């Protein structure tokens, strides 16, 4: 008798369990069947979902310029000069104001690099060096830092590294480079194909403070760059005061099937370079059919 009662209880419990499962399943899938929703069985990625944004978000640019510049011929392997009692002191300026947090080091004496230094809130960087004679040949930026601290900027083409030798002595800091960063000249997008006789009009945005612009044209064998050849010597580079140019007026030997890229350098009223376009030879601006 007890055995029959026990089996009866177990049967009831099993039946109740089945009913509960069916009810839960109906509640879960009913929202998709009757509510018009599509079920998803993928795991939650943990990403936050924001509300719809009706404006145009700003482009995340990062630093747009070169990571280093240096003059002369250099050995394949450079030495790093250790810290010492001497000091080279310079300044970092971005858009005319001191810029903190820029990490850089200098190329020195045609064969060496300095220690890394970081600019402070006044834009000043200090590099400890052994006492001795030095010549600054260029600089290198830490790109992992530059993308955050110099977003949307390039290294000014007007930087002066053609300087005389100097001595760094204890308690007598030597003057280092003033490193300036500016906004680039923005070219208007093209990536067009032109016929044999069609005008090739290239344009860019007006740059604040610019009096004139010089245009260099690069000839490439592939759309991604490859071997590139500048078509104008510096003396023959086309110069205009407007913000567009018809390259047919200056380049008479453009070749069918090749790709071309143009770069723009802006000059002020005194003939000084104040900015230039960026993204050199990473893509093309036009192709001749």
Topology record:
Blueprint: H1 2-33, E1 68-70, E2 79-80, E3 86-94, E4 97-98, E5 103-108, E6 112-113, E7 117-118, E8 124-129, E9 132-134, E10 136-141, H2 143-149, E11 154-155, E12 166-168, E13 174-182, E14 192-194, E15 201-203, E16 212-222, E17 225-230, E18 239-240, E19 244-246, E20 259-267, E21 273-276, E22 286-288
Parallel strand pairs: 2-6, 3-13, 14-22
Antiparallel strand pairs: 1-10, 3-4, 3-8, 5-6, 5-7, 5-10, 9-12, 11-13, 15-19, 16-17, 16-18, 16-20, 20-21, 20-22
Task: Describe what this molecule looks like in 3D.
The protein is mainly beta. The protein folds into two domains: 115 residues, Sandwich (Immunoglobulin-like); 97 residues, Immunoglobulins (Immunoglobulin-like, Sandwich), CATH 2.60.40.10. Helices cover 13% and strands 34% of the residues. It contains two helices and 22 strands. Strands 14, 16, 17, 18, 20, 21 and 22 form a seven-stranded mixed beta sheet that branches. The longest helix is centred in the first third of the chain and has 32 residues. The radius of gyration is 32 Å and the shape is globular. It starts with a helix and ends with a strand. About 6% of the residues have low confidence.
